[in-house]
Every structure is written in C-alpha cells, then in structure tokens.
C-alpha cells in the first residue's frame, strides 16, 4: 500500500498535529512513513499544511505533489489542493468552513462538519481528530485503535486533561462516516 | 534503543548531544531553527552550554573559543548564515581546531528563499573562507544516517583537529521519519587526550593557539603539513555507496535528498531491465574520485542530479578524468527533482 | 646586592617588536604584573586581537590564543562558558573593539559575560599603517584622513567606555591612561580591579587604556605622551564610569 496525504488548514486547527498523529500511528504499525511540514514565511497568516507518505516500501522523497488523500480544513486549503489530487483520490472536507462546490468529478469527496461537531463536543480545537476518525472510517490504511494509542502517546503529560475529548472526537468522526 | 519520530533538525541536535557535544552557539535562520530550539532545551539537561549569539559570525567564534578549551562544540545555520561563518571556519582550520558546522541549505544566491537546495556544494567542498584549507563534508540522505554521520563528524573533527561540515537541506531538516536512537546519553567518546588545549598552564609550559605565522617559511611549512593531513584524509576517509556498480551502463551520481529519489529511479528502471545504477557520495570532501574512476569500465555515461545549477558535476568530471561523458540534471531555487523528471532525462541520454 | 625590581614571571624574556615610545609594552607588563600579583598565571587564558598587539603571546608567559579581527569577546565567551574556572581576558585595540567588533563587544557586555577586556585606545591604526581609528580625534591627521578627521565625513570619535557603561551587564568600566608614571600606577590598579570583578564572578569588566602611538601620530615619544595627557584626555576623560 501507499498513501500520499496532505493535511491543510489554518494555523490553530491542529494541522501539524494531525499529520504527526497519522505518522506516529503508521510508524507504530511498522510502515515506512515521512512527514514534511510547510515552514517559514510560507505559513505566516495563511494556510499551513503537512505532507505525509505512508508506504509498505521505503520512501524516496517526502514531497507530495499529487496526493491520494487531501484533508482540507478550510476554504483556502480546499482551493489550493482541489486541483492537485490524484485521479480517483479522496478529498475530506471540513464542511463547517468550506461551502464551495467540488468541481472535480474524478475524485471521491467526503464532507464532515468537523468544526460544528467539535463545538458540540465542547472544544473547537478537536475538529482535527474528528476528521481523522472520519478518514479512517472510509480508508482503512491504519487501525482506528492504533490511532487512539498514538494520540495517547503524543499528547504531552501536562495536557492529559485533553486526552478524553480527543479520543471522543476520533470516535465521533468515525461514527459519523460509518453510518 | 528506541524508535522515535522526530524532524531531521532535532535528530541532528540529539545525535550531537549523544556524540558528546557540550557547547552549541547559533543564530536563528530558517530552515534549521529546530536545532537551536532543541539545544536550548537539552544542553542545560546534560550540563552543556547553549548560547543564542548576536550573529553567525559571533556564534562560530564562540565555538572557536569553546573548542580550544577541549569541548566538543557545534554551530548550525543555513546558507546565508554559513556565508557569515566562513571567516571563523578559516580560523578554525588555521588553528587546527575541531568543530562541527551544520548547513541546512536553502535556496540562494542572496536572501534566496527558504526552500530546500543543494547550491552550497562549492562553498562547502572548496572552503568558502580564505586560505589553503579543507573541511571534511558529510552529506546524510536519511534521518537515520544523520545519527551516524553526526557522531562521525565529531570523531573526525577531533582526530584530525579540523572543522567538519554536515551538509543537509531544508527537506532533510524539516521532514520526519522513524529513527532508532540509543537510549542514553552516555557516549562521550572524546576523552581521548587533547594535549593541545588551553586550560591554564598549571604544571606545564604555556601554550599558544594561533594562525599567524610570520617567520620566514613558517606558513609554507604549516600549509605543507596541512596538505599532508588532507592527503591522509583523502586516502582514509572517503565514504560512498554504490548501487549496481558491476553492470550499469548509466550511472546516476547524487547525494543527500536527491539520492533518495535517484535510488527509487534505479529501482523502477531496473525492474524494466535497464542497467542503471547510483553512486551516492556520503563524504563530499574527500570526494569518491577513485570509486567513480573504477566504474568507467562498464559505465558508458554518468548523470549527475542535484538541487543546484550544477556544482558536484564538476567533481564527477574531475573524478573520472573525463573518461566518459558526464551529463547533468538539476533543479534550483527550491525545486525538488521528481522520479519522472529524472527518468525522462535518462531516456533522453540513453534509451 | 638584592634586586628591588624584577621582570614579572608572566612576562617572557624577549626583545620588544613595538616602536619606541609605544604604550602596548607598558600595558602588557601591567597585565603580567597583575597576573603574578594575584597568583593567576596557571589559571589565566588571554586572547590577543588583530592589530599591533596580535603578537602579545610572544610576551606573556601563560596560555594565550588569538581571535579573528573584532571577535575577541565572542572567543572569550566560548572559553569562559566552557571553562568557568579559568580567568579569561581579551586584549583589544581601537579598531578591533570599536569598529569591526562592535557587535561582539556590545553583546558580550550586555550578556554580562564574566570576562575582562583590556581595551587599548591609541587613536590610530598601527599595524596597517596609520589609518583612521573610530577613536581618532577630530582634526587628527591619519593616512585616511589626510587633512584631519572631519565629523561630517568620518563621524565622531567613539567613546567606548561611556557607551558600554550604560549596559546593565557591565559591572566595572574605567578609563585610564599610561602617559605618565602616576597614570601607569592607576592603570595597574584598574586592571587588578577588573580581574577581581571576574574572580568574584560579578560579570563583565572593561578597562580602557589611553595609550600613545608616536609613529602614527607623527610625534616623538616625549611629545606623544604629552599629547595623550593634554589632548586625548579632553575627548576621552579618565575615570570610573561604572
């Protein structure tokens, strides 16, 4: 297997963490994985993204040009990456913030009102975990339980109070798309 | 041993600490900022020194000071900052002081951009500073190799008493991939006696560390001694990896990030039955000249691929003494060559 | 016969390369005397600058290194932070400290590095052949201010001690002179005090020493000490700034 993933959104939406959580999960699952952030002036004020490649064989370049999966957390990210997704690829859209119509007809689209769901859960910052739960419901390249374990390891000891809500967010995202 | 997921810059910083580095001075510049940030946190934990200097010039001179007291010392920067460090590197070479200098390259010239690049090859391998000196240059291609080469860099710096550069790029510094690290920070291997340091002349004659040699013929003699040392290094310290040296008709030559992509190209084309191989210099100076020359029997053409407008390609030509045609494909200013681009280039040349 | 005046142990028995009447030799000796008096010879690490005093290590009989032009405070920082038990001093000229090395001196001082700087201000560049220094006096003729230093073209003489003394990291800053025996003794006391500040781990100390360069002020040794005492001290008043 091989998935080339781009996670994109505003700073503060946990974009980097989303990529790290998936990478960490993949590492624990014995996959080859690379994670590459957008950095420097590129991330000031606008859209941040990270690129993750997960594969059964070694990875040459960590740069993702044509993602097989793109998780777009806001409108600018949707605009930026819609055209770049590989044919028959998947776009997971945060429909709370992206109302645009999808122009591409050759890709699969999954709409998740992640920000609204996160508000209902009591913390808008867990929209990223809702998206990850949703993603794994339609693409089972990683085990859901492995993601939960990775998130448990990644959240620093000082923020363990946030663990429960993050895990709940993963579950809700997963259930939303399993229905 | 533990498997961790860290970015290249952090892996490098932790590896330096594991190699016994106890002094770091630097100045922020993208894309290597994770190194000073990590060092600022870790150095106090291991009883080392971290200083955010007022400039790259100052940082390298602080390293100069720390090194002459016997400490394993390191500074890091990215291209424009490395230009500023050249003065200090020349003085380190002139005073025969060990030090590790990290360049996480970005695009140039001038302020350029912050995207990954390999356009400081000339500066690194020729010695961007003044005078007849060399520095050892090591170019890791993966995060795991950063661990090994950082340790090696400190060992080589100490054993030859000279600056060693670790040459990476923004991609290698920023990306994460799984890395196996040793559990503890116990490896302080440099206790090998440094009988030349300045620590106060207690119970011994005073020492002087300097590079000003005004006596008649003194500097020439010194330079001859340096050259002798450099020749020894050329004989002993060349490191490179060769894929399919035995039967390749077309040989790719690439280092660092680009070599990862070329490795994939070789795999793809070999599956199609095409006799393509790869030479990956790990030490850029000393350069694997003999290793390349030994391939000129079966290899019909060489293709050097770089994230620059063509720098290492000159060493490839020199190395094989122009016995076979050497082609070049490069991207610059932040462009990272793709597998498809390289295959297209190979098809133009050979197939 | 009992000798009543001896060469300091920290001074080597060699001939001087400095010009007749030059102040560097006096300052070298004052440092050597202080190091001996305070019993620091086996603990001290000196740093020679680029300039006439680069050869200071030919005279001092203790550990000495040499720094690139202006980088003495950075090298001193690296040494002192790695070996806090050593006593680290930098010797800088006016070009080294007040021109090419302004960033290094200001930031080492501002960090309050526990080091000592002996700053020799003789108003002119010696080693390169008598060019303007940042401390060259207005109207003073040098090879790059041939009709005299003009403020409009070359700026004002830079007052390093005054500038540095406003920084909170600086514990002790004094300007002294070596143009007369009385002043030489005062300079010696100041150098001793600066080393004591470092021994007490209080922070950054600097002694600026006004000195004579007969060769490039175009004066006889006798005239040059008079010029330092009468002219230079007007622009660079002696005293403790901090």
Account of the 3D structure:
The complex is a heterotrimer of chains A (179), B (351) and C (242). By secondary structure, chain A is an alpha/beta fold. Chain A has six helices and six strands; from the N terminus they run E-H-E-E-E-H-E-E-H-H-H-H. In chain A, strands 2-3-1-4-5-6 form a six-stranded mixed β-sheet, with helices on both faces. Chain A is globular and about 40 Å long. Chain B folds into two domains: 2-236, 3-Layer(aba) Sandwich (Rossmann fold), CATH 3.40.50; 241-349, Rossmann fold (3-Layer(aba) Sandwich). Chain B is built from twelve helices and 15 strands. In chain B, strands 3-2-4-5-7-6-13 form a seven-stranded mixed β-sheet, with helices on both faces. The radius of gyration of chain B is 20 Å and the shape is globular. Chain C has 242 residues and is an alpha/beta fold. Chain C has one domain (24-240): Thiamin diphosphate (ThDP)-binding fold, Pyr/PP domains (Rossmann fold), CATH 3.40.50.970. In chain C, 37% of the residues lie in helices and 16% in strands. A seven-stranded mixed β-sheet of chain C has the order 2-1-3-4-6-5-7, sandwiched between helices. In chain C, strand 5 (170-177), helix 7 and strand 6 form a beta-alpha-beta unit. In chain C, helix 3 crosses helix 4 (102-110). The interface between A and B is medium-sized, with 20 and 21 residues.
Top keywords for this entry?
heterotrimer, A: 179 residues, alpha/beta, Pyruvate-ferredoxin Oxidoreductase, domain 3, six-stranded mixed beta sheet, 6 strands, 21% strand, C: 242 residues, Rossmann fold, seven-stranded mixed beta sheet, 16% strand, globular
Largest beta-sheet details of chain C? 7 strands, mixed
Per CATH, which architecture of chain A? 3-Layer(aba) Sandwich
Number of helices of chain A: 6
Low-confidence blocks of residues of chain C: none
Quickly count the domains of chain A. 1
Quick recap of the structure?
The complex is a heterotrimer of chains A (179), B (351) and C (242). Chain B is α/β, with parallel strands linked by helices and 351 residues long.
């Amino acid at each position: 297997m091989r998935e080339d993933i781009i996670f994109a959104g505003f700073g503060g939406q946990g974009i980097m963490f989303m990529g790290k959580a998936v990478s960490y999960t993949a590492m624990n699952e014995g996959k080859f994985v690379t994670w590459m952030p957008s950095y420097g002036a590129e991330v000031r004020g606008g859209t941040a993204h990270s690129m993750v490649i997960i594969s059964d064989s070694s990875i040459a370049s960590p740069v993702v040009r044509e993602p097989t999966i793109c998780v777009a957390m806001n409108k600018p990210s949707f605009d930026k990456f819609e055209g770049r997704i590989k044919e028959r690829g998947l776009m997971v859209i945060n429909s709370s913030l992206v109302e645009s119509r999808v122009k591409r007809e050759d890709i699969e689209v999954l709409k998740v009102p992640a920000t609204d769901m996160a508000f209902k859960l009591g913390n808008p910052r867990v929209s990223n975990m809702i998206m990850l739960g949703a993603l794994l419901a339609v693409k089972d390249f990683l085990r859901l339980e492995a993601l939960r374990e990775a998130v448990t390891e990644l959240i620093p000891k000082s923020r363990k109070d946030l663990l429960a809500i993050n895990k709940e967010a993963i579950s809700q995202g997963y259930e939303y798309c399993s229905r | 041993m533990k498997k961790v997921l860290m970015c290249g810059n952090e892996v490098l910083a932790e590896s330096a600490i594991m190699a016994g580095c106890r002094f770091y001075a630097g100045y922020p510049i993208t894309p290597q900022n994770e190194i000073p940030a990590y060092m600022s946190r870790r150095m106090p934990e291991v009883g080392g020194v971290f200083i955010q200097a007022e400039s790259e010039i100052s940082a390298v001179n602080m390293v100069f000071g720390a090194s002459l007291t016997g400490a394993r010392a390191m500074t890091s920067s990215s291209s424009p900052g490395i230009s500023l460090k050249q003065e200090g590197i020349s003085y380190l070479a002139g005073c025969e002081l060990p030090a590790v200098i990290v360049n996480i390259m970005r695009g140039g010239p001038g302020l350029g951009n912050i995207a990954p690049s390999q356009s400081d090859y000339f500066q690194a391998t020729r010695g961007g500073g003044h005078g007849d000196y060399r520095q050892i240059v090591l170019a890791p291609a993966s995060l795991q190799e950063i661990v090994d080469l950082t340790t090696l860099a400190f060992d080589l710096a100490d054993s030859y008493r000279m600056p060693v550069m670790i040459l990476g790029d923004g991609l290698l510094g920023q990306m994460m991939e799984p890395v196996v690290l040793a559990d503890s920070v116990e490896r302080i291997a440099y206790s090998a006696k440094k009988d030349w340091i300045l620590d106060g002349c207690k119970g011994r004659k005073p020492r002087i560390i300097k590079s000003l040699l005004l006596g008649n013929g003194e500097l020439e003699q010194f330079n001859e001694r340096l050259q002798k040392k450099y020749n020894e290094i050329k004989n002993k310290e060349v490191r490179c990896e060769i894929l399919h040296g035995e039967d390749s008709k077309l040989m790719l030559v690439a280092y660092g990030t680009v070599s990862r992509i070329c490795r994939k190209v070789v795999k793809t084309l070999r599956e199609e039955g095409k006799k393509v191989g790869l030479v990956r210099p790990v030490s850029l100076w000393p350069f694997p000249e003999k290793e390349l020359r030994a391939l000129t029997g079966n290899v019909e053409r060489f293709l050097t691929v770089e994230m620059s407008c063509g720098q290492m390609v000159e060493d490839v030509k020199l190395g094989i003494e122009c016995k076979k045609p050497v082609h070049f494909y490069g991207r610059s200013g932040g462009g990272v060559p793709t597998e498809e681009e390289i295959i297209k280039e190979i098809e133009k040349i050979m197939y | 016969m009992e000798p009543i005046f001896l060469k300091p142990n920290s001074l080597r028995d060699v001939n001087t390369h400095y010009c007749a009447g030059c102040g560097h030799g006096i300052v070298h000796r004052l440092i050597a005397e202080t190091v001996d008096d305070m019993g620091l010879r086996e603990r001290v690490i000196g740093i020679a600058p680029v300039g006439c005093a680069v050869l200071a290590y030919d005279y001092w009989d203790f550990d000495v290194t040499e720094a690139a032009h202006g980088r003495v405070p950075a090298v001193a920082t690296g040494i002192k932070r790695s070996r806090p038990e050593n006593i680290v001093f930098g010797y800088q000229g006016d070009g080294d400290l007040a021109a090419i090395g302004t960033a290094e001196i200001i930031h080492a001082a501002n960090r309050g590095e526990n080091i000592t700087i002996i700053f020799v201000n003789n108003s002119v560049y010696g080693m390169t052949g008598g060019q303007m220094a940042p401390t060259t006096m207005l109207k003073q003729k040098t090879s790059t201010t041939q009709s005299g230093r003009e403020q409009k073209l070359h700026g004002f003489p830079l007052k390093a001690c005054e500038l540095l003394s406003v920084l909170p990291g600086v514990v002790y800053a004094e300007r002294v002179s070596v143009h007369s025996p009385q002043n030489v003794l005062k300079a010696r006391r100041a150098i001793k005090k600066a080393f004591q500040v470092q021994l007490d781990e209080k922070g950054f100390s600097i002694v600026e020493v006004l000195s004579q360069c007969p060769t490039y002020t175009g004066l006889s040794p006798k005239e040059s000490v008079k010029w330092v005492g009468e002219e230079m001290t007007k622009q660079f008043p002696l005293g403790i700034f901090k």
